[in-house]
Write a structure and sequence with these properties.
STM4215-like, 6 strands, disordered C terminus, alpha+beta, 161 residues, six-stranded mixed β-sheet, elongated, 3 helices, single chain
Length: 161
Amino acid sequence: MSTSVPVKTILNTFLSRARAWTVDPLASCVFRKGPQFALNLGTADCACIIALRDLAGGEQSAGSGNHFWHTWAFAVVLAVPDDETDPEAAEDMRLDLIDEFLSFMADIDTRTMFGGAKWGVVSGCSLGMGKVFTADDTIYRYADMTVEYRSLRSRSNLTEE
C-alpha cells in the first residue's frame, strides 16, 4: 500500500521547527497555526502565522506505478505592528524578520524535514501594510510568504499522526 506523509504532519513539523528557532527576531515572534481572526501579541514584537494555502499544481505523477508528488503550499505571514512615531524602526524590524525567516529556511533540517518531505522552498513573497486580522484594528507591516513542501506518496513513506 502506498502512503503519503499527511499534510498535518508536515505543517506541524514545520511549525515546531519555527518555534524552536533561537535567533531573533524570528525567535521572539508569537507563532500561530491556521488562519487567525484576531491576535494578541502580548509582549512579543512580531507574529508568525503558518497556515495551509493550497495544493500547488495538484497531485502530480512521479513516474510509473503508484507514486505521486504532493506539493503543499503554506502561507507564512510575518507581521510587525506599525509604529507611527518611528516607522523606519518598524520597517527595519520587518526586513530583519524576513531575513531571519530566510535563514531558517536555508537550514537543511528545515528544507528536508523527514523522509516524506523531500524539499521545502520559499516560492513567493508579497509585502503589504494594513489590517491583517479581521477583529483587530492594528496596522501591521507584513510579508505574506508562500513556502512549498513536496512530499512523495510511495511505499517507502511511513504515515505519522
